[in-house]
Amino acid sequence: MQVAIDGPASAGKSTVAKIIAKRLSYIYIDTGAMYRACTVIAKNHNLDYGDEKGILEAVASDGIEFKTEGGEQLVYSAGKDISLEIRTPEISANVSQVSALPGVREEMVSLQRKMAGSTNVVMDGRDIGTTVLPNAEVKIFLVASARSRAERRLLDLKQRGIKSDQTVEEIEADIAARDYKDSHRAVSPLKKADDAVEIDTTNMTIEEVVQSILEQIQKKL
């Protein structure tokens, strides 16, 4: 069983995907974290975020690895836990540019498909249902207002202990800009798959979203 959960930034994809994977004992793969890790690697190597060749070489050198510790999924690169670093405002502001690089997307999509393999998997991102797992049995497309997503992003940063001087209005503007970049990039743009079920999470609780998706999965079992 392959469950693909797509949608724009801060629509709640990762949160609900983790819960669903845990309840069903499926493998969870956070593809957004992989592109964020590529962006951190570029930053740590002092590379321009548009330097495709340099970033690919640095990623090949440092590697990206998921580890589960204490029930939490952590992201490692070059032997270092970068789970918090990938969520910082600088990385959020530049991940769209890095993830739009054709070579980076090709490399990450190949890795994501290998990770999915032939196991039961819940994968979230922006092009899972359209590009990474086009034959997924369940495809979900989460949407929410830019304002509600900005409020969630600010709360998430506080809960993670990541300091940000941005106001909710500034975060909302950043999210709107990222929506535009992600949906207008040339390679694998953010797009709802024709056979995806759209869920507007603006006024829903996490549990309500989880239950809606579990109902869709149940139909396919």
UniProtKB/TrEMBL annotation:
GO biological process entries: nucleobase-containing small molecule interconversion; pyrimidine nucleotide metabolic process
Domain Cytidylate kinase: 3-218
Residue runs in coiled coils: none
GO CC annotations on file: cytosol
InterPro entries the UniProt entry points to: Cytidylate_kin, Cytidylate_kinase_dom, P-loop_NTPase
EC number from the UniProt entry: 2.7.4.25
Alphabetized Pfam families for the sequence: Cytidylate_kin
Catalytic activity: dCMP + ATP = dCDP + ADP; CMP + ATP = CDP + ADP
Subcellular location as annotated: Cytoplasm
Cleaved signal peptide residues: none
Keywords from the named record: ATP-binding, Cytoplasm, Kinase, Nucleotide-binding, Transferase
Nucleotide-binding found in the keyword field: yes
Domain of life, source organism: Bacteria
Family membership: Belongs to the cytidylate kinase family. Type 1 subfamily.
Record-given protein name: Cytidylate kinase
Source species of the chain: Lactobacillus gigeriorum DSM 23908 = CRBIP 24.85
